[in-house]
Amino acid sequence: SLSGKTAIITGSNSGIGLGVASELARAGANVILNSFTDSEEDHALAEELGREHGVTARYIQADMSKGDQCRALIEKAGACDILVNNAGIQHVAGIDAFPTEKWDAIIAINMSSSFHTTAAALPMMRKAGWGRVVNIASAHGLTASPYKSAYVAAKHGVVGLTKVTALETAEEPITANAICPGYVLTPLVEAQIPDTMKEYGMDRETVLREVMLTRQPSREMATVDQIGGTTVFLCSDAATQITGTTISVDGGWTAL
Ligand code: NAD
To answer: Pocket residues for ligand 1 (CB within 6 Å)?
Structure first.
């Protein structure tokens, strides 16, 4: 059980981040939810998680595109035994047409935020004598697709940062690993399905198999709970000697 541990999950008011927070709370961890929005719903989500799992759950606003706010998130939490770097955005365009401000935002949110949060969290983990860093990378941290230059560069960068974090903590009771999901069924992905069905004149099954999941051999999306379960595993005693590596949750994508 992770009871008594504090987990900070960046970008966790929806999708994978919320799924990971739920599974960590189910395993007994106190959780800190984060986004840049600071809405009533954000705070209500934390309250709900806390009530459902009998843990302490708090929401802390911080913009992961800003280094000082990344560090402030960790400081405000006051403790960080488990750090899950999850916040991420996407933009799709060819390199020669890729807007510089989108490149900068993706590098900042998807990659540099993990540097800042890790830098702030490691001293707390060392003081506590235990720590887990789990970076939510992507199949695009291991392989590429056209038109996703910033995302692929940032996710490869996160995998590199994960390895360095592991080496710098190798002799301490701290591990650092990256989870590399393929397609995960989140509300954002779910929302694209009806439009794609219309566009191709296909039913849901066929759109998933023939359009969205052509690179995912299982032809099934992972769920946010499965990414959460993988995170809980990386925080378990069984994973003590797993550090500096990647776990693909991609239905065989990177085996192709
Ligand atoms: P999502 O859009 O549902 O969630 C993104 C989260 O990041 C949200 O909680 C959002 O509030 C937060 N966020 C965005 N910008 C932020 C900022 N500036 N400051 C703080 N928070 C911010 O997307 P998701 O699919 O759940 O993605 C979560 C992570 O998983 C991302 O890093 C993404 O690259 C990765 N991922 C997703 C998939 C997938 O298929 N959905 C696959 C592989 C990897």
So the answer is: 11-17, 35-36, 63-65, 86-89, 109-110, 136, 138, 181, 183-184, 186, 188-189
